[in-house]
Structure formats: structure tokens, C-alpha cells
Amino acid sequence: MAISLTDLMSMHEGLELSFQAFADLMMVLDAHGRVLEFRGRESGPYAFSNAILGKNIADVFPPLEVKKIERALAHVEKTGNVATFEYSLSQAGVEFWFDARLAPLSKTQFLLTARDITICRETESRLNRKMQQLSALRSLDLAIVSGLDLHLLLSMFLDQVSMLLHADATALLLLNPKTNLLEFVSGKGFYSNALQHTRLRLGESFAGKVALERRLTHIPDLSQHQTEFARSPYFAAERFVSYYGMPLIAKGTVLGVLEIFQRSPLDPDADWLNFLKMLAGQAAIAIDSATMFKELQISNLELNIAYDATIEGLSRALDLRDKETEEHTRRVTDIALKLADSLGVQDSERIHVRRGAILHDIGKVAIPDQILFKPGPLVEEEWTIMRRHPDIAVQLLSPVTYLAPALDIPHWHHERWDGTGYPDRLRGDAIPFTARLFAFADVYDALTSNRPYRSAWRKQEALEYIREQSGKHFDPDIVPVFLELVNAKSID
Fold this sequence. Notes:
492 residues, alpha+beta, 6-stranded antiparallel beta sheet
């Protein structure tokens, strides 16, 4: 027996109250999808008239929603269970969403109830959008902290702007502090490279005015302002309709302008504008950080150049006394760096090896000429004075803070693995690694160079001596590496 909606309401006194409280539409359908009865609100997209009675749902709902209801009918007929789904209806360009339930009343009749969840969907959509925005800002924060190349960072930034603000095209212009011109650095979404050669004075065109006036500018109809884009003869081909320009400001200074172009009218809400401002703030921070980092790199480079010039000057003081010392310093520095590379010394330590090698004999500036340039062997009293040059080097260099990591070589390159060296008679691993490494370069070059009191040894003689002194003068772990370098002719 068929049950009408009126009978159903009468049978269940609470159903009318439930409809008023929770449902916006109740509709009885037969197995073929015809509307037998309905009850709905008096207004809204669910305000159907009596004209729908007897009609099929295909005459009442949009095609996509009809398919959802038909699938639900098939499910309920087959299983006898309630089917749930969502559908949407549009009215005056506004989309309304409903949470629907389809339940069996009998074998041939079914009850469709629906509740308006538009506000819930809008809230969910807004929350999802906020989450996307927060995720984008977080990604930009991490990119800024990571020290990513500025051009890569700005390209990533424009990708986020285009995606999250649904912008057809975006451009970034940075203010060149030397020329005081806004220059194009990155763009997305353009049909051509029409704007890539942009160079604007402050106050010129929209971007120049944005930078000069330091405020957001919106042009809803670009067709009324074509002359403003005379900077590109191809601009008309882009077919842009609306424009937003946002100044990029950090620490009170204008760094550039973010431009957004749309090929349709653009009337954004407050959330869109607020997010645009947040993105512009992030971009300004990124540009400021990258600029500071670049300036710091330049300053460090200039400082390192000054450091090296100072070191060269100190070494030159000794070279002026002895021309042979100049060539010896150049050769041992080259040998020490090659050996350091073979032993896996990191770049951060390599610079200290180089500085220590250049300054390894700087303490000899205080050794009297009659001892330093004596043509024959030194007597014991003279050796006592000569062996003071490592300590003199420490006295000379220790006040120079940045040379502290390089002091190991000038201080201990005359120590020996077996503890018989000087000045501190260090033994084995107690000798700093760079000093052990440098000892090979110093001894090898000394043996293979002419001296006032003897001729240079042949290469093989020097190598045999170093091999024989493994574990005595030299670190036995480094000996095979050094010998291999010389035999491979990496070291002359």
C-alpha cells in the first residue's frame, strides 16, 4: 500500500517538527523517479511549486544531480538501505549545496530529504583556502631561510601568487638602487616576453606610481589606460582587462613592485586582498634577506682578499731578505695543497693550510743574517737560535685572530713523528694533522733544492729518504699517499 507524505506526517507527530528544524526539502518518489509529493521551504532554490507533481526528477533537477538521485534510487532498491549524497542547485548565479538522504517508504516509494549545507561548504572552502595560504607562506619562509638563489625564490613566489590568487599573469620589478629604476626580474603567464625588458623611472607607468606612492593600485579597466603601457608595443596582444600593483616594502624601503594582470574583470574579496598583502610582505623579506646575504658575501670576499694580501705582505717581509725563500714558499704551498686534497681535507680547512704554508717560516725574520745565510752547517749554539723561529712565528701571528686556525703549521712543522723534533718534542698524533701534512712538503722541497752548503738531491733519493723515515720523521699513514702523488707526477 502506498504511503503519502501527508499520511507519513500524520503517523509520526514529530516528523513535521523534524522537517521544520532539520530539512529544507522532503519529496516522495516512485521507483521511476516521479515526484509523488513534496514539501519545501517557501523561498530559495528548493522552493518548488505544485507543478512538479507527477513529473520525473529529470524535469526538476539539473542533469548531473539527476544522475546522483538515480544512483541513490538504484542503491536503495537493491539493498533496502538509506543512501546519502550531496547535490547542488543554482539560483541567480549563486550555488547552493545540499546534504541528501534517500530512504525506502515501501517497495515502490522512497523519501528524499535534503538539508541546505551551503554555509558549511563555504566555511570548509574558506578553511581549505586558508590552509593553502598558510602552507604557501610556510614554504616561502623555508625557502628564505634556506638561502635559495633569489631568482629561483622569486620564480617560486610567482608560482604561489598565480595559483593561490588565480592570477592570469604576474610580474616582479625590483628597484635598482644604483640607477633608481624599476627593472623586470621575473614573470609568469605572459603570452610573450613583452615586459621582460622593462625599466621604469619612479612615477612612470602604473608600477612606477605604485613604487613612488607606496600604495596598492587597482585598475579595473585597462582599456581606459592603454597609454600607461607604452613600455611594450606588444602589450595589447596580452588582452589584459584588470590590474593590481603592490609595492614591496621592507624596513621602510621600497624594494620593488608585484604586478598582477587578469584577462577578465577582477573584483576580489577582502580575503584575496589580505593574502596579496601577506605575499607581498614575504616577497619583500625574501628580497631584503637575499640582498643582505649577497652584500655579506661580497664583504667576506673583500675581507678574505684583504686577509690574503696581509699574509702575502708578511711573507714578503721574509722574501726580501732571501730570494730563495720566495720560491721555496711558493713550491711548498703548492705541494701542501695537493697533498691536502688527496687526504680529503675540506675546503673550509684548506684555506688554513694555504695560509699556514705561506707563513711557515715567518719566524725567521728575527733570526740574525749570519745564522740564516750561513753557507755551512750550523754549530749547536746557532741551532739553538734557529730552533726559536717557530715560537717567534707564534709571537708574531697569535695577535691576528683570523690566523689562529693556520698557526699549527708555523708552530709545529718541525716536529717529528717519533718525538725528536722541535720546539715541543710532540709525538705521533699529538702533532696537529696539518703540521704533519706540511712536513712532507717542507722536507721534500728542501731536499730537492740547491742549498749553499750542498747540491739538490735527485727525486728518487728524496723519495727513498721519506720512505725510510716513515714512522720516524713522518706520519706513516701519509707516506704512501705522498709517494703516490710524486710518482704520478702530480708533484714535481
